[in-house]
Amino acid sequence: MARIDNHQSDFEIKRPNLIERQDYKPAWPQEEFMVPLLRRYIEEILFTYCQPVTSNSRVLDVGCGRQPFRINLEKLGYIYSSLDAQQNPESSVNIVCEIDKILPPQVIDLGCFDFIFCTEVLEHVADWDMAFSNFTKLLASGGKLLITCPHFYQLHEEPYDFWRPTPYALKYFGNRFRLKILHQVQAGDAWDVLGTLIANCHPTPLSKSFSNCFLNIIVLMFGHILFKIIASRRLQANVKLNSPLYMSNIILFEKQ
C-alpha cells in the first residue's frame, strides 16, 4: 500500500466523504438512466474490444472507488491493480494517489499496463494534461484506455466536479498524446436526458396562495407520472425523441 502526500496547491479543496457504489445499479432516481446505460456500454466494450492478449495481461482501474467492475475485469482474465485518490472502506485500493499529479515511484515500479480502465472519473480530475500524460506513461505499447465521462448530469462529488467534456475534447487530448481512437460513442438519448432532468426537478409554490399550491401539486404529480412512464421504457419502444442531447461520452483509445 502506498499513500502519496502531494504538495498543496493554491486551489486547495477538501474531498467529500463519499459512500461509493459496490455495484453498478441505480441507487436513487437521478441515476435511473445514467447508471444502467453506462453498465451496458462498458460491458459490451469490455467483451468486444478489451479481451486480454495474454494470460499475464494487466489492468489498472483508475479512480476505482469500491471496484464495481473488478469482477468483470478479472473474469476476462486480467491481473487487477487499482488506483484512487482515496482509500475505500475495504482498504482494497493498491495505490492511493491522484492521476493528475506526478506519479510516485510506487506506481512507476508497477510497470506498464495492457489496459487502463477509467470510468466516471475524469470529470473530477482538474488537470487533464497531467492525467493524459500519466495514462501514456502507464500504458504499454498497444495498450488500451477506456474512458467514460458524463455530458448531461447533475453536479456530484462536489466540490470535485470540474468538467462535462464534449466528444471533441476527448478526441483532442487523445490526439495530443498520440492515442488512437478505437471506439467512440455519444451514449444515451433525449428520453434519458428528459428522465434525468425530471428526477432533478423539485417544484415549490412561489406563495402560500391556494392557486399556487394547487398548481404546484399538479406539476409535482405530472412530473412523477412522466418520470415513471419514461423509466418504464415503454415510450422509448414506440416513439423516438429526436434531439442533439445525450448523456455520456464513451471512448476507447489505443497507445501507438
UniProtKB/TrEMBL annotation:
Gene Ontology molecular function: methyltransferase activity
InterPro entries for the chain: SAM-dependent_MTases_sf
Alphabetically ordered keywords of this record: Methyltransferase, Transferase
Pfam (any one): Methyltransf_23
Alphabetical GO biological process terms: methylation
Taxonomy, superkingdom: Bacteria
The protein's name in its UniProt record: Class I SAM-dependent methyltransferase
